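During the reporting period, our protein records have gained a structure token line. A sample record is set out beneath this paragraph:
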Amino acid sequence: MTPSETTAPPEGREAPRVDVSAYSSGFSLGNRLGRLAWSLVQATAFRWSPTPLFFWRNLLLRLFGARLGRGVHVYPTAKVWAPWNLEMADFACLGREVDCYSVDRIRLGAHATVSQFAHLCAAGHDIHDPRLRLTHAPITLGDGAWVCAGAFVSPGLTLGEGAVLAAMACLTKDIPAWEVWGGNPARYIKRRDLRADPAPEGTP
């Protein structure tokens, strides 16, 4: 028996179809206007700013409601969907070309890093709804966590303190503290053990 046979509707009833003609995200007018204003600022004063001017980009993000700690680094090509849903603790970083799709809350703990081309995706769509209803859930990176280059973090997930998501991985489950995960879907690889006294650069 084929999958299509097992899911066929009862005789006389039409099979449901995807129909997004009446789709609505449900965002308020205030939300839409805020994102419009931010998109204009992000495409100009934010994106065109020289890379070292982190304080300037932090100021712009704060003006639109982001909660940022000391020493935060957000690169000019990083994309933030809604700054008011972004929280970054001291010395957290969003690297080059990071896509921070903050439809829901996204929080980076102190010293957490998101490397170039990574995607923090706090929203999706219900594939079982014919109108593809928007769904969303918060993303949390613990202190010292690292999302490596090109990795994808799904809505509603947490990376524990010191956790690492390897390059190009796709995360669909929470990562416990101090674990390294990789692959698609991402799976446990090993523990992350920091050296107590790292040798200075150039030391054999």
Notes: The longest strand covers residues 187-191.
